[in-house]
Amino acid sequence: MNNNLRPVGIIGTGKYVPEKILTNSDLEKIVETNDEWIVSRTGIKERHIASDNQATSDLAYEAAVKALDSAGLSASDLDLIIVATITPDMSFPSTACILQDRLGAKKAAAFDLSAACSGFVYGLATATNFLQTGMYNNALVIGADCLSRITDYTDRNTCVLFGDGAGAVVLGEVPEGRGFQSFDLGAEGAGGAHLYLEAGGSRMPASAETVEGKKHYIYMNGREVFKFAVRVMSSATEAVLSKAGITKEDIDVFVPHQANIRIIQSAMERLNLPAERVVVNVDKYANTSAASVPLALVEAVEDGRLKEGDTVVMVGFGGGLTWGASVLKW
Ligand code: ACO
Fold it and tell me: What secondary structure letter does DSSP report for 5?
């Protein structure tokens, strides 16, 4: 990164998952599946599901309050709020604006960012650029999703895979040599047809037919997304390491998108990473889309796994198709 820019890193973290837990044995009662299949094919044992009166901004709010508290800042210190989500409370206003009002972050600019499971890393890169140039001082970046709202609980191919949650970080200036060292963001729009939600936008507005046709739920070609994921997890990591001028041996903590344990294991093999350096919580939360990377990061902070000076690599991939990776000196 340009050396004239000021160093920016994470100065506060918080996470939130809804109380309700949906286990594999609960799902066995809803669709034809079983714990053995789900655990062996995905590594998932349970997931948290938002209550009927919780929307994405409610999850984001809980995580944001904790992140501000851990940064020792108040909402009035925020200049920017970015919420990465594919399940906003509504089409507009943005979930970030709803959150800005609820937090009382009166001077903060606020917008949502749509990059599916890569959204949090895209959000980190976006906010970092605003802060490095000096345009803003403090930014709140949140990955939050209520995938349960767009999941078809009669489709065993997808309903076992997803959960709800939110992870938040506050970005600010950090000492020289610390903070974000590099980012690698990318997209392969041609792969968009492998993972999408068809209706409710301007191409196919909501109608009785779209509801009847179950077009407000996630469609996923699991095998194609799997192949893409395995490929970009290692290529994005290699790209971001090279931009930071370091090698995979320098990684202390690897925080991958938590979609499937087999994708994570394949990245570990390709990158030659021992298990103790890799954060895994897909068993507890399943795939929470934009919340997945920050939930894993914040859990590593709370567990004391992440220590000052550690080199952290985060990698997300998902709908778009998109990917995002970063190197961060903690
Ligand atoms: N329980 C039991 N059997 C099942 C279930 C289930 N829940 N789901 C599928 N099966 C069956 C299928 O019907 C199929 O049966 P068939 O061979 O008789 O047709 C069989 O299991 C095997 O299916 P595969 O598709 O070969 O299973 P695969 O090993 O590919 O695993 C999975 C499927 C878990 C979806 C995998 O492909 C995957 O993880 N893909 C990536 C998903 C991902 O990373 N998404 C991230 C983005 S999500 C986002 O952006 C919101």
Answer: S
